[in-house]
Amino acid sequence: MDLKINREMLSVSEKIYDGVQEQSVELDYILPDYYPDIFKLIKCCIVPTIISSNINGDSLTYELLADVRILYCSEKDNNLQCINQKLTYSKTIQMGANVNKPIVSLIPKADHINCRVVNQRRIDMRGAVSIKIKITGETSQEVICDIFGMNAQMKKIPVEYAAKKITENKTITVNEDVELNMSKPSIIGIVRSDVILSDPDKKIISNKLVVKGEAEIKVLYTCNDGMETMNFTIPYSQIVDMEGLDENYDCSVKLRLISCDVLVNANNEGENKLLKCELKIGIHCRGIKTLPVSLVADAYSTSYPCEYAASKFMIDQPPITINEIFQNKTSVENDNETIMCVYDVWCTVKNINIQIDSNEHTLKVSGMLCFSIMIKNENNFPSILEKEEAFEHLIENDKITENSAAEVNIEPIECDYTLTSSNGLSIKTEIRVTGDLFTSSYCEALTDVKFDDTVKITRDGDYALKLYYGVENEDIWNIAKKYCTSVTAIMEENSLDSDRLPDNGMLLIPIV
């Protein structure tokens, strides 16, 4: 008897590397002549960023930028001074083998920082940055999706999987000149800048993806009267080449701020009111096309002995995009002295933790919100109040299972404050949660099957029907396989409309 087997090649994700690398950050800094002497150290921080990454053979190499900012005051005046140093490091990971279609996730965070004043002209800084690294590749798994001939019986499972994936990374540079309003005082120096990248618009054109969005920038700068803030928006538009992309793909775009450099220039009147801003933005584009397929999970023959091989593997489902906003409210008290003026309030996030509850179908994101409040104290000197507060946010989705995983980014997008007393204020923060929920699940399917057509199955008697006592919810497939008959024959003989028994009772088993 002729035998025909249809096979399918499935794309299956494979974890290549999942670990953490550490990088020490050290700076021994002597003030240039144009900086005043150090009287009081206000704050020191490290903002780490991944500039670029590249895979060559079995090695991943990436560039880490540690943006070090040191704020201090001199004894002569109350102007805040800002030392900004950018330190770059090259790091390498050995993956052990070449990777097909690698997807790399690099998430840096500042672990700790210690800064001390050696003398009035010298600062010694020691810190550390850790980089969470995850690398996945793509392999192919051959499975059986249909069997014809040899009186074969099949148990099929329908699967919808991510059949085709297209990813592309691109770094763009956006330059913009912005002039301060007439009402704003001239700039002495830049203290800090914040960048919020809005959700981009995207449009598919054949083999290309058009990405448009805006970068909202907030600059805190020193002036003769203390400090001021300046807000402005820079638009951007980019066409990303993605060979094979069409309307059948579901596309997503992730944005990553690489750097924001703000320089001060004089305008036509000779006043320092012109800001030259250079933004570098990393754009990660992903297109996924899903296809349905029926896989053979079990098989036998009603006439011939059968042997098969099965494999258990992970089926990739299209990731579910996470994009939610929640609010946090907190209060800060300055127990030591009166707050004369609030210059700026900002928030950062650390110690992000993800917990998945498959029973409740929830994803809980938790961590610490770190608030910084730049104020003027009773002595007319700048000072920073700081507070840390734990947060939790719950995301519900019916598709969350025990095999689910998630990658999230937590980003404060707005901080508003209200003075509640002479030494206290209330802060309301909007926090955006973005990322992907991966709902891949394990699947077991046949990879090979063999029938012995030289031997016929013999029965222990010459009969056309057999009695069998079934129990509630028993799978008819198992009964049919036991007696080498077909599921259809049992269901028709017993007028059943489900592949599981509704009640306990006797069944007539027809012999095919």
Task: Please outline what is shown here.
This protein has 512 residues and is mainly β. 3% of the residues lie in helices and 71% in strands.
Q: Order of helices and strands, N to C?
A: EEEEEEEEEEEEEEEEEEEEEEHHE
How much of the residues is beta strand, in percent? Answer: over 45%
Mean pLDDT: 91
Shape assignment: elongated
- Low-pLDDT segments, ≥5 res: none
Count of strand segments: 23
Question: From the alpha-carbon coordinates, what is the Rg to the nearest angstrom?
Answer: 32 Å
* Total helical segments: 2
Span of the ends, CA to CA: 17 Å
Largest sheet: 4 strands, antiparallel
Structural class: mainly beta
Structural domain count? 4
State the share of residues found in helices, binned by percent. under 10%
Secondary structure blueprint with pairings:
Elements: E1 4-30, E2 40-56, E3 59-73, E4 80-94, E5 103-119, E6 122-148, E7 152-179, E8 189-197, E9 201-205, E10 208-223, E11 226-241, E12 250-265, E13 274-301, E14 306-315, E15 320-333, E16 341-357, E17 362-376, E18 382-396, E19 405-421, E20 424-438, E21 441-451, E22 465-470, H1 476-482, H2 487-493, E23 505-510
Antiparallel strand pairs: 1-6, 2-3, 3-4, 5-6, 7-13, 8-10, 9-10, 10-11, 12-13, 14-21, 15-20, 16-17, 17-18, 19-20, 22-23
Description:
The chain is mostly beta strands and 512 residues long. The chain folds into four domains: 14-140, no CATH class; 150-298, no CATH class; 318-439, no CATH class; 458-510, LysM domain (Membrane-bound Lytic Murein Transglycosylase D, Chain A, Roll), CATH 3.10.350. The protein is 3% helix and 71% strand. The protein has two helices and 23 strands. It has helices at 476-482, 487-493; strands at residues 4-30, 40-56, 59-73, 80-94, 103-119, 122-148, 152-179, 189-197, 201-205, 208-223, 226-241, 250-265, 274-301, 306-315, 320-333, 341-357, 362-376, 382-396, 405-421, 424-438, 441-451, 465-470, 505-510. The strands form eight sheets. Strands 8, 9, 10 and 11 form a four-stranded antiparallel beta sheet that branches. It is elongated. 22% of the residues are buried.
